[in-house]
Amino acid sequence: MGERSHRLLLSRARGNPTKNCPRLARPNLLCLCHHEVEQAERGLLVGIENGPRSSLVIGTRGSRLATLQAEWVQSRLRELAPHLSIRLQRIRTSGDKIVDVPLAKIGGKGLFVKEIEEALLRGEIDLAVHSMKDVPSALPQGLVIVCIPEREDPRDVLLSRDGLVLEKLRLGAEVGTSSLRRQAQLLSYRSDLSIHMLRGNLDTRLRKLQDGEYDAIVLAAAGLRRLGWNGQVTEYLSPQVSLPAIGQGALALEGRQDDSFVQELIGPLDHPHTRVAVTAERAFLARLEGGCQVPIGGYAVVHDHTLSLDGLVASVDGKRMVRDTIRGPVQEARQLGLQLAERLLGAGGDSILNDIYGQA
């Protein structure tokens, strides 16, 4: 492939790989042959700028919360490398484009990250900032999670129009959520509730509550806290009532596997306890082969050198649920996640998942 000290920019002209070739405008950039262009378009080939550089591009979704999260990373990197020019590039994802259909019905994985990862593979951005719970357990070849900063509050929260906590909501109260995981646990706790789809950015969801479309809505605490809107929260739901999603509250900073410059730059932001916890949760999810269409919850905490992982699999209506906890040394985080998944599958989780996938 030639030198990897320069970023390889692609020509998308299939019939003529030199058409619009960046080498014509910038002689120091390498050009790809037609065969390599096709590989790159499939995400199989990327050129990496490994050495020191003067600028960096961070990819993010365009929502208010996603932008704020990316700006936080941008600020931390400016503190670490004041000489570096860092800009954000907002990218619209499939999940952003489809807002009137439940996520479970859209199907597929990576609805909120796919287009950003493609830009990363093409070399258009150097670093991607995601909400960890949006990142599938299997990453595209050539990409890695280079950094997991310290986790925000991982809990779910209830926001009610009349200031009532979950237990005090009226009989048959209408509750909005886009998550089958939340739906299953809410119905398990209170089978009388009427659960309705709730899509859109955080400000859209809050407006729908204020307009009277719902008695209450359930959201992630982390997003509200990052936006400074935690004053809107009526009740923080304990993990015993609503076990969080895998990786909820954590950020995933994704980069190219062989981009040593970015990995070294971002390294100081990594939080070891959060990484260990999320590693266990994502191993648990990977073994269950779960996606947004499956009610799966998992939350790990680290105390001293011991990791505790709580996981569940539930039916959509909340009538069937298997849940268990596993503990062990932090060095075995991934194995603990896999072991807990096996336990739940053997305890009835396999039957629940087969029924759900059979209906999908």
Question: Mind explaining what this structure looks like?
Answer:
There is one protein chain. With 360 residues, this protein is α/β, with parallel strands linked by helices. It is 34% helix and 21% strand. It has a five-stranded mixed sheet, with helices on both faces. A five-stranded mixed sheet has the order 7-6-8-5-9, with helices on both faces. A hairpin with a 2-residue loop joins strand 11 (296-303) and strand 12. Residues 1-47 have low confidence and may be disordered.
Give, in order, the helices and strands: HHEHEHHHEEEEHEHEHEEHHEEEH
Overall 3D shape: globular
Strand order of the largest sheet: 2-1-3-10-4
Per CATH, the architecture of the largest domain is: 3-Layer(aba) Sandwich
In DSSP terms (H or I, runs of 4 or more residues), the helix count works out at 12
In CATH, what is the homologous superfamily of the largest domain? Periplasmic binding protein-like II
Residue fraction in strands:
15-25%
The average pLDDT score comes to: 86
Uncertain spans, ≥5 residues at pLDDT below 50? 1-47
Number of domains: 4
How can the largest sheet be summarized? 5 strands, mixed
Helix fraction bin: 25-40%
The tally of beta strands, per DSSP, is: 13
Instruction: Determine the structural class based on helices, strands and strand pairing.
Output: alpha/beta
At the first level of CATH, the class of the largest domain is Alpha Beta
* Separation, N- and C-terminal Cα atoms: 43 Å
CATH topology of the largest domain: D-Maltodextrin-Binding Protein, domain 2
Mind telling me the C-alpha Rg? 22 Å
